[in-house]
């Protein structure tokens, strides 16, 4: 029974972490631009590794912006032989980032489409525990793993807190909407009753004026 419970917890953690890694591959047409949007939470480390297939004479620029068009990362002329093809930054608020790849082909050359692969990591998966934490704090392997599990636990708690907050906001919005619909319905009925009463009185006066009724 304990083994089944541990397996379930491990599967849950694996699904949670897998949701934080997004990989995609697409083709970029010559002299074109393709942008991808990704929603990120506040105070989260975001890293991206990308590869661009080789095309003689062609250049590909990479730009990462937030929803306010602030440039978070920019690199020009991403060629096949460049080793450093990655970006990283920490978000300040909940936002949607836009990752754009822009193709440039000389006017005298006929371009070909290039293959672009991109892997985005967020949160725990974006951290290099062995390389960064291990060297900085001189931690042993078991201590590094414990640190990783601690961060995973903290992330899970934060996710549950965020989901609870979103649920409360949605419930408040639902209750507010129901109240507004109820008040609007009452107001509409009052208007209809008032209009119907005015119409009856007006017709009565009209028919009396025409001496059609007493």
TrEMBL record:
Where in or outside the cell is it found? Membrane
Q: Which domain of life is it from?
A: Eukaryota
**Which Pfam family, giving just one, matches this sequence?**
EMP24_GP25L
Q: Which GO terms describe its cellular component?
A: membrane
Which range is the signal sequence, renumbered to this chain? none
Q: Where do the GOLD domain residues begin and end?
A: 33-148
How does this chain sit within the bilayer? Single-pass type I membrane protein
Where is it chiefly localized?
membrane
**Record-annotated membrane-spanning stretches:** 181-203
Q: Which UniProt keywords apply?
A: Developmental protein, Membrane, Signal, Transmembrane, Transmembrane helix
Query: Which family is annotated?
Result: Belongs to the EMP24/GP25L family.
Name of the protein: Transmembrane emp24 domain-containing protein bai isoform X1
Instruction: Write the gene name.
Output: LOC107263197
């Amino acid at each position: 029974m304990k083994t089944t419970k541990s397996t379930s917890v491990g599967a849950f953690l694996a699904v949670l972490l897998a949701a934080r890694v997004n990989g995609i591959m697409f083709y970029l047409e010559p002299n074109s631009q393709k942008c991808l949007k990704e929603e990120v939470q506040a105070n989260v480390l975001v890293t991206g590794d990308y590869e661009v297939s080789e095309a003689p004479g062609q250049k590909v620029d990479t730009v990462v912006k937030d929803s306010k068009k602030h440039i978070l990362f920019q690199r020009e002329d991403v060629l096949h032989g460049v080793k450093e093809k990655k970006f990283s930054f920490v978000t300040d608020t909940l936002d949607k980032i836009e990752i754009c790849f822009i193709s440039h082909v000389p006017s005298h050359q006929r371009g070909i489409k290039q293959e672009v692969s991109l892997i985005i990591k967020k949160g725990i998966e974006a951290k290099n525990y062995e390389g960064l934490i291990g060297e900085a704090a001189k931690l042993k392997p078991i201590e590094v793993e414990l640190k990783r599990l601690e961060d995973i636990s903290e992330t899970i708690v934060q996710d549950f807190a965020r989901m609870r907050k979103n649920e409360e906001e949605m419930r408040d919005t639902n209750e507010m909407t129901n109240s507004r619909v109820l008040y609007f319905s009452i107001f509409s009925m009052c208007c209809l009753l008032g209009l119907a009463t005015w119409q009856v009185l007006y017709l009565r006066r009209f028919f009396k004026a025409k001496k059609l009724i007493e």
